[in-house]
Amino acid sequence: MSQNRITSLFNIEYPLIQAGMIWASGWKLASAVSNAGGLGIIGAGSMYPEVLREHIQKCKKATHKPFAVNVPMLYPNLEKIMDIITEEEVEIVFTSAGNPKTWTPILKEKGIIVVHVVSSVKFALKSEAAGVDAVVAEGFEAGGHNGREETTTFTLIPMVKEKLEIPLIAAGGIATGRGMLAAMILGADAVQIGSRFVASNEASSHQNFKQMVVDAEEGHTQLTLKELAPVRLLKNKFFNDVTELYTTNPSKDQLTELLGRARAKKGMFEGDLDEGELEIGQISGLINEIIPAAAIVEEIIAEFKKAKKKLPNF
User: Fold this and answer.
1) 134 near 124, Cβ under 8 Å?
2) Which CDD domains does the UniProt entry name for this protein (predicted)?
């Protein structure tokens, strides 16, 4: 594929980025995606600082190609995590769930490429003003933590593109080559894909969860817990408990109490499909098999090229 602003920025072959997902994206997945020509990302959100260090070191041994670390800024140990990223000479950092002004200048000073994840035009512009190198604009279809505005990817990408000067990466509801092409026609320079890589051999998430993603159909996910932090979940016993609690007009404290601690770890990493929090995107209804990450990249790029060839005939 010919180079564009994102492939040049990250020095990668394809404008395809694997999302840094909690409990799913360790060094095995990140290195596999990078080796296949995309940009693999280690998700620091579910890692203690020293665990992150270990994943970075193992990723370096498993690939000589660029990879990134995703850092949700609402987690504790943030300074320690940033120290490790600097010490281990990570070249690309994706930040999310926080103010890009806080860390962007510090990371940029150390020569690190910084990308921030947003769910609205307003925050895309704030990120650009903060000095980030690129923005991921993530639509409402995405799994995990999500925007309160409920703007879909199809709407969000052209709106952000209209206002933004820096490179734009589309995320949310993309798992196929045709989806990738559609996002790029709407103005994205690249796509970020999460849910499809959960159902990969190298994802560190539990086999039970991977299988539930594969079995999911349209309508099996929903956005909830907006009062805490909006999150898209697969419908299971825990989701039903949340829905039932909402009928009582609960306080934030009651919702927090029901959520408890380590609920996401219980579901996605330990495989408790009843009591766990199972974060996945709407596109899970289109995911039908668990295959190696390299095969996913290959499949998406092949479909992208095939769909692109057909465009002149429309």
Assistant:
1) no
2) NPD_like
HSE, CB side, 13 Å, CA atoms: give it for residue 267.
24
Whole-prediction pTM: 0.96
CA–centroid distance for 196 within its chain: 10
Map out the domains of the chain with their CATH numbers: 5-204+285-313 (3.20.20.70), 217-283 (no CATH)
Structure tokens at 83: 């120290």
pLDDT tens per residue across all 314 residues of the chain: 789 999 999 999 999 999 999 999 999 999 999 999 999 999 999 899 999 999 999 999 999 999 999 999 987 789 999 999 999 999 999 999 899 999 999 999 999 999 999 999 999 999 999 999 999 999 999 998 888 888 999 999 999 999 999 999 999 999 999 999 999 999 999 999 999 999 999 999 999 999 999 999 999 999 999 998 899 999 999 999 999 999 999 999 999 999 998 999 999 999 999 999 999 999 999 999 999 999 999 999 999 999 999 988 87
